[in-house]
Structure formats: structure tokens, C-alpha cells
Write a structure and sequence with these properties.
Elements (H helix, E strand, L loop, with lengths): L6 E5 L9 H10 L6 E4 L2 H10 L4 H12 L2 H9 L4 H7 L9 H8 L15 E7 L4 E5 L4 H8 L9 E3 L2 E5 L17 E5 L15 H23 L4 E3 L14 H7 L2 H20 L1
Parallel strand pairs: 1-2, 1-7, 2-3, 7-8
Antiparallel strand pairs: 3-4, 3-6, 5-6
Length: about 280
């Protein structure tokens, strides 16, 4: 069922919750559907760039498991950037800003592409212009720097400067960038992994949980408005509410809990392609 020019894929931001994107990619692979274009924000930029380079969903899953599946190895790697990263990953209440470019260099494989021009699928990433209060679309040149800028979560990571522009997490301005894809040419599949704050009713959240929860609420508001004006053809929302933005050490739990999105993606893709066949 190979329809290379019919489907485009948008992968949203959400930190560790974006590990759920892997199930969506594996459904694409199993149906032999290659996206005509990909857009990504934050963790969606990291995973989207790998997928656009030719990595399979299974290979990206293996990358995540090898990078974060062993707690001792993760902290050994982060020790090379001490001390700030250790504080950030050690608990929800004690953060120090990290250099996101250096963190990515440690955890990404050597063959992860370095420029947009190396990609086999067109890719558009989001960044947020901190001083310009504007969306910055990144689609050429230094891919790793663009991915770092898109994933530069405030408080956790130092902003990234590209062409004199200070950029922070693309999810701040566009958490699910399906509007960067051409709906006139392609069926659009969009995957939202922002999630919502969880907790016991009446219990006050911690300072850090409150900050990240407020960010989740803001990003969900942006997505809700976009869905009302021009919804994608297939909208997917894995069950990720139970996980925090930096819960990468829970990679196996996230993969297990979000596994049902694979079947939902597969069914949705089959419907889209069948409808297109009938229309054709």
C-alpha cells in the first residue's frame, strides 16, 4: 500500500511523551506508507528528522531504548556535561539549564544527519523567536542545530541562536505544526503528545509541575484553535498524561502504555488511503 505522495505527517512536541510517536511511525512502515513531507516540533523535530533521514520506526525505537533504557548509562553520559544535567534528570524540583546541542550530540547516533539536504523526505521544523514573538520555520542548513532549537524547552535548556535569532522550544508557538504541511496536496496526519496535567483534585501542584502544566495548557489551547479552523485528516492523541516532559528514563513504560495508538494509526491510515482510492 505504497502511496508516496498522498500522506504528510506532523509530529508534535511533548518531551518524553513524544516517545509515543514511535508507534505511529511503525504503523506507517508496516503499511509501506512513506510520508511525502514531515513537520515536527520539539521531540517531534528530533524523531521527525530521524524518520526523514530514512530511519525506520523500529530503528528509532531501538535508538530511544539504547539512549534511555539504562538509567546508569544515562547518568554516566550526562556526567560528561556535569553538573546541570544531573540535577535536571534527578527530579522534578531541581533544574539547571543544559546546553541542548551538547545533550543531543551525546545521545544521537553518529549517522544522524547533519543537514536538511541529507534527508530523503522534506522536513519543516518549528522554533520560537524569543524576542520577535514569532514562529521560525527551519527547513535548510544545519539540521542538528535546528533540531536543538526546536527542542530548547525553557528553564531546562539554554536557547539556541541561529542567524542572530534567539530561538526556544518550537512548541511554545506551534506545538503541533500540521499547518506547515500542504493540505491541498496531501492527506494530513497529526500526532499530539502534549498531554494534560494530572493530579489529585484539590492538591496543589509543585512549583515545577505548575510551570510545565501551565505550558501544557497553553499549547493545548493553541492546538484546539487550530483544530477548529483547519483540522488534519487524521488526528491522533496517545494516552501520555501520566508522564512528565523529562521522563525519558521511563521509555519502556511510555512505549507500553501508548501501544494502542499503533492500531488506531493503522486503521486511520487504511481509511484515508481507501477513501483516496475510491475518489480516484
Amino acid at each position: 500500500m505504497n502511496d508516496q505522495h498522498s500522506v504528510a505527517l506532523a509530529l508534535g512536541g511533548g518531551g518524553a511523551r513524544g516517545i509515543a510517536h514511535i508507534h505511529v511511525l511503525k504503523a506507517f512502515d508496516d503499511l509501506d506508507v512513506k510520508p511525502a513531507a514531515i513537520s515536527g516540533s520539539s521531540i517531534g523535530a528530533i524523531i521527525g528528522a530521524g524518520y526523514a533521514s530514512g530511519m525506520s520506526g523500529a530503528e528509532i525505537e531501538e535508538l530511544m531504548l539504547s539512549a534511555f533504557g539504562n538509567r546508569t548509562a544515562v547518568f554516566a553520559n550526562l556526567w560528561r556535561l556535569r553538573p546541570q544535567p544531573l540535577r535536571a534528570f534527578a527530579g522534578a524540583g531541581n533544574f539547571g539549564q543544559m546546553d541542548v546541542e551538547k545533550v543531543l550530540e551525546i545521545f544521537l547516533p553518529e549517522n544522524y544527519p547533519r543537514t536538511f539536504e541529507e534527508l530523503s523526505i522534506p522536513l519543516r521544523l518549528t522554533g520560537t523567536d524569543y524576542y520577535g514573538n514569532a514562529l521560525k520555520v527551519l527547513e535548510r542548513g544545519d539540521l542538528r542545530k535546528a533540531v536543538a532549537a526546536s527542542a530548547a524547552i525553557p528553564v531546562v535548556f539554554v536557547p539556541v541562536v541561529i542567524d542572530g535569532t534567539v530561538l526556544i522550544d518550537g512548541g511554545i508557538h506551534n506545538p503541533l505544526p500540521f499547518d506547515l504541511l500542504d493540505a491541498g496536496k496531501h492527506k494530513i496526519v497529526a500526532v499530539d503528545v502534549v498531554g494534560l496535567p494530572t493530579g489529585k483534585p484539590g492538591k496543589l501542584p509543585s512549583r515545577i509541575d505548575s510551570a510545565f502544566g501551565a505550558s501544557q495548557l497553553m499549547m493545548q489551547s493553541i492546538t484546539t484553535l487550530k483544530l477548529k479552523s483547519h483540522p488534519p485528516d487524521l488526528f491522533l492523541r496517545p494516552n501520555v498524561d501520566a508522564y512528565r516532559v523529562l521522563d525519558f528514563l521511563k521509555v519502556r513504560e511510555i512505549l507500553a502504555e501508548t501501544a494502542p495508538i499503533y492500531d488506531e494509526t493503522r486503521r486511520g491510515l487504511e481509511r484515508l488511503l481507501e477513501a483516496e482510492t475510491v475518489a480516484g
